[in-house]
Amino acid sequence: MIRAVVFDLGHTLWDIEPDDGELLAAAYRAFREELGARLGRDDLPAAEAIQRAVRDALVADAPMYFAEGPELRQPPSHSWVERGCRAAGLVLDEALLRELTPPLFATEIERLACGEGTVAAVRALDAEGYALGCVTNTLADTASIRAMLRRHGLEDVMRSVVVSADEGWRKPHSSLFAKALRELAVAPHEAVFVGDSPYHDIAGAKAAGMRAVLTQQYAVRPHDGMEPPPDAVISHVRELREVIRRMDGAHAGAAPAR
Fold first, then answer.
1. Model-level pTM?
2. What is the pLDDT of residue 29?
3. Which residues, in sequence order, are CB contacts of 95 under 8 Å at separation 6+?
4. Which of 54, 110, 252, 256 is the most exposed place for a label (fewest CB within 10 A)?
5. DSSP state letters, 153-166
């Protein structure tokens, strides 16, 4: 019997609209201003120079971070900011970097778009008694992800929020799925994971002993012949309830115990 549903976030519960760059530029201007105030300095590198240097650090590590391979460790997000600042001639205390970095990786909060009926479908699952959670690969911290969930009316139904940036690992590492299961107090076979990535989401969840549903609501990823295959493929999260019914072999209208 399925008792819990765990979601990926980006391209699963919401899409990310294009950015003209101004939101990120504004975040770096605010970062530089706050640094100047904290350090009592007015000779800091330009915000544009800091942004460019951090971008270069991220680009240099992109093959490692996005590769589908055995190295699944995720460095703390402030480490890229530290490298960028150092390249721009600015050496900063780690505690200060940890404090000021989060807004630089949370600007997409202004660009998230949930498809019609998505929030209602997720909340309906909560109302039926399913324990809900999410596991996401991101450079944003947990507080930022919770703010994104809150903006779309979903934070209160997520009993577990697992964020790679704060865990030090990225999906498909088993520890992220295990933490969600532990916080939801369910066994792997009692949970289904929903995500858009055949590698990060489907393979990761199946390896953790969960059922796995591939969603194509916002992005269609090739999955023909993949091993292990998803247990189901959906085009909208509203289809998930019927998928779970089929998995449970239950009659229409049955609901799990709380």
1. 0.93
2. 98
3. none
4. 252
5. T-GGGEEEEEEHHH
